[in-house]
Each structure stands twice: as C-alpha cells, then as structure tokens.
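Narrative summary of target 7.
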Amino acid sequence: MNVLSLFDGISCGRLALDRANVTVDTYLASEIDRYAINVAKSNYPDTIHLGNVCNVGKCDASLPEIDLLIGGSPCQGFSFAGKQLNFDDPRSQLFFEYVRVLKQTKPKYFLLENVRMKQESMDAITDLLGVEPVAINSNLVSAQNRYRLYWTNIPMDELPDDKGIMLKDIIEDDYVTDRDKSHCIDANYFKGGNLKSYFEKHRRQLVFSDNLQPKILQRGRGFNSGGIKAKDGKTPSLSTSSWEHNNHLTFDEGFTWRKLTPLECERLQTVPDNYTKGVSNTQRYKMLGNGWTVDVVAHIFRGLHES
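Modeled conformation, tokenized:
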C-alpha cells in the first residue's frame, strides 16, 4: 500500500498502520517541523519526506499512485479552546490543501482527523469530503480524555473496545492522580503558570506526591480553602506546549505536584516509550500534543483488511 500522510508530525499514522498490521510499501510524508521530522526519520528512515503541504503534487509530478491519504490539518482555528475563527484562521485554511491533494491523487481510502468544532465548520468539511465524521474519545484505549472527529471512507462498524486504562496505570513513579483519566494533553502543555490557572484555565494535567491527603481533592471545579477540586478521572487531551522548569513544587498543604513526563505523555497517546527521544522535552511535549492517539487510528485502519 502506498500511503501519503499530510501534516505528518511524528508519523503517528505509520505507527498506527504497523499496529493494525497493514503492509506499507511506500510512505510519503509532508511536514515542516524539523524536530518532528527528526523523530519520524529516526523511527522510520525509509519515509520519503516531501516538505510543505502547499507544494505536494505541484513541485513534484512524480508522486506514485496513492492508496491511502491521511492527515490531521492544524486545528487551532476550529478548537473550542481557541478563538474559534474556523476557516478565517490561516492554519485552518490548510484543510483545503488536504482537499486539493485528495482530489488530485484520488486514493481508494482517506482519513482526516480534527477536533470538536462548530456545527457549521463540521458540516462544511463533511460536504467537501462526502462522509460523516465518527466521534471517538481516546479514553477508550488510553488514560486520556481526547475527543476527536474522524472523516474516513475506511469501513468501521463499531468503536474501539474500552481497555480500562487509567491515569494511575501510566505514571512512572509513586505519585498519585486526582482523576481516573487525564485531561487532554495539547501542544501547550509545556507552558507554565500558577497552580490555579493550571487547573481552572488551561486544565493541564498534574500528578501529586503520595503524601497527598484525601481532603485536598474534592469533586467539582475550581479552588477553595480545602484545596484543589477535580472534575473526573481522565486527563485532558495532550496539546503542543509544556515547560522545562519548575517540575516539582511543594505547597503549604504538604504535598508536591509535578507535570507529566514526556514518557507519560507518550503513553497517553499510546506511542511507544521513548519514541520521541532525541529532542528537547519542550519539543517532545509539542509534537505529542499535536499527534494522534495511535491505538484509535489503528482501530480505524484495521478496517482496511475488511475491504
């Protein structure tokens, strides 16, 4: 199978194809982030890198016949966490490059991933791709709450089975968790901030030392004199940002908190341990936040065997 991956990132699509036991003859990748490209090359040196998506199929007329086109165009303009500029955001307009390449290559199968968005934007994408999206929360296969939409013509009869993986199952040390499932880790996970904003505004996932007293954690939202209130048990979705310092802070209540490690974020995305090693932690957080939950996409790709 010849695969063309747009906005390839760290080649989570290639990981998912391997996990789904789909044979890849040629894997072509369009990506501009040099750190993500380095990680992809170190894991899959046979990948053919094409550079900027805006040049794919234009500067190189020698593309092979493509059997599968995949990609997750930048989502910041669509995300409810952002300004919701939708197609007015230049990053979201890159979706039309996906449509252009889809029309040009005419693959047998395609997959587009993106975030939850306004109905009008979702309808516009649906009209252009000709298929309804399937909504899947990564919490079925990982310890992370990550709700995404998948537009695809690959046969899929049911959602992935719930593997029952909890946040506490992927933590490296004896720290404890305030929820069963992590918040969605996004590309901004590396960014710092005070503890209150970390929970209330950004919902960055933290874990706590084992001397944390039960009274500090309460169901609900926000903060009060009793300490942190948690909403549920999965982490928020991974995003593209994180910070390099102040990994551990101790508070008057007598507990220590820290951010998730890059390896723990890999586990949230069901990426192999240390898959992203070789670049800075900041870059690892960013590329994992921008990536796919591999086991979700692998579930979709297993439908390729049924067609």
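DSSP finds nine helices and 15 strands in the chain.
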